[in-house]
Amino acid sequence: MPALPRKIIHVDMDAFYASVEQRDDPSLRGRPVVVAWRGNRSVVCAASYEARTFGVRSAMPAVRAERLCPQAIFVPPDFVRYKAVSRQIREIFERHTELVEPLSLDEAYLDVTVCRTPLPTATATAQAIRAAIREETSLTASAGVAPNKFVAKIASDFRKPDGLFVVRPDDVLDFLAPLPVGRLPGVGRVMEARLAGLGIGSVSDLRTFARDDLERRFGRWGRRLHELAFGIDEHPVVSERPTLQISAEDTFASDLLLDDLAPHIARLAEKTWAGYQRELEQAPGRLARTVVLKLKTSDFRILTRSVTTPGRPASLEDLVDAACGLRERVGLPSRTRYRLVGVAVSGFSDPHAFDPQTELFAEGSSSPG
User: Fold this and answer.
1) Selected catalytic residue, list 21, 50, 66, 107
2) Strand partners, 297
3) Count of domains for the chain
4) pLDDT tens for each residue of 45-88
């Protein structure tokens, strides 16, 4: 018996953090709200639609947002509150399907091919979800409905805010054809420029290149580009993804030299270790083998160094020693200053793959950073 065609919904909350703030403080409604701490080293977490009309966007330096919109109201983020609202929304999703794949606190994929509610179509399900979100949280959400994940995600952006856009299976090719290739997942500015050099500006342009030609030029990614151009995406909605990395990072009040980072690395390693212990309580069989040190220079260059071992970090002290030791592999001039440091563990594996007698971080076990 052939598998049922997938029915995927991508739900994206509208200016989520800013909308929560406007909901909870009526004086903020209709005004340009920027969720961020003020200061030279802060970035924008979210901006209300009123602030966006001035060009304010997420991840923008807060000082630039203030220049663009001097009348903006800056509100410090409250992630505890945002997570509580996100849980409410997740409960609404799960009334309709068990296949919910959160991408962040404010967006998720839902596979409603087999739905828990007796609604006749995926469109009706998306309408019901949006109505429930509005009624139960006093917030709005936009949604895209399509036969696969990436088309649904693009569609959810078409009627923002508070909109619904449906792409039926027979309409996928026509829907994608006029879109800039930059709308395809994984096509960033660098790839977009490389494609432009080949005369490829739109999805329809991309279709004029044979798959083998794209694969010769871009390797496996070329094959993926060809699939996306024709609306092909077989990735399923995965309701529970295993943790890939546990991390903590911090931006300093003033830039520091590499030699001054040890106490900050130790502090962040302690936070990472606490998160790792919570993960082990939930999944005792998943042990981390890789330690990662992340740095951001004063000129915003980001670099990481990592070490993967036959053993594993067995204590907080092991983690601190490994993370601090990775400073030796940074390779930048000693006068370089850093505005951010982070510590992470990753490379989760089955514990039976470990030899408990292997010395942690044995010589020759380092991976290239």
Assistant:
1) 107
2) 338
3) 3
4) 999 999 999 999 988 899 999 999 999 999 999 999 999 999 99
Q: How far apart are CA 2 and CA 178, in angstroms?
A: 32
Determine, yes or no, domain membership for 368. no
- CA gap 55, 67 in Å, rounded: 10
For residue 285, being part of any structural domain is answered with: yes
Q: Does residue 215 have an active-site annotation?
A: no
346 with 290: CB under 8 angstroms?
Answer: yes
Please give the residue range of the domain that contains residue 206.
Answer: 177-229
Provide the pLDDT for residue 350. 52
Report, as ranges of residue numbers, the positions in the chain whose pLDDT lies below 50: 1-2, 351-369
Residues 30 and 163 in one domain: yes
**Per-residue pLDDT, 3:** 59
DSSP 302: E
Q: Count of residues for the chain? A: 369
Q: How many CB atoms lie within 10 A of CB 82?
A: 20
**Residue 286: which CATH number?**
3.30.1490.100
The answer on 42 and 139 residing in a single domain is yes
Give the integer Cα–Cα distance in Å for 321 and 265: 10
Closest-CA residue to 184 (of 212, 226, 236): 226
- The closest alpha carbon to 69, from 49, 50, 54, belongs to 54
Whether 222 and 291 share a structural domain: no
pLDDT digits (tens, 9 = 90+) for 232-273: 998 999 887 667 788 888 888 889 999 999 999 999 999 999
- For residue 97, the tally of other CB atoms under 10 A from its CB is 21
Say what the pLDDT of residue 239 is. 84
Predicted model pTM? 0.70
131 and 256 share a domain? no
CA dist., res. 39 & res. 34, Å (int): 13
